[in-house]
């Protein structure tokens, strides 16, 4: 949905339930014109979608965000100042219909977003 449009994956490692990915934001994407004019910020819902899409890539399964036990937006992502981000996702399949994740989106200077959630396999 957002991959190869809002962001591109520049590195991706999937190792025994842990994903380490590097992404590059498309700073010219039209979403930044409206969110917010003159002060672009990566929308929180897009951070959540990026995590979901990278988890789908890691598991090879189509997923749906069922519940987020914890979702913390710690700092704003200004795409002009921080176009390169790192995403780490620890995941496991506690049952045959869901994937439990703990994810972090950060740069070398700051942590922007943390989430613990269950994604349903659809």
Automatic annotation (TrEMBL):
Pfam families hit by this protein: ApeI-like (PF22818)
| Recorded superkingdom | Bacteria
Among Gene3D superfamilies, the record links this protein to: Hotdog Thioesterase
Q: Which InterPro entries match?
A: ApeI-like (IPR054545), HotDog_dom_sf (IPR029069)
- Ranges for domain ApeI dehydratase-like: 15-93
Protein name, per record = 3-hydroxyacyl-ACP dehydratase
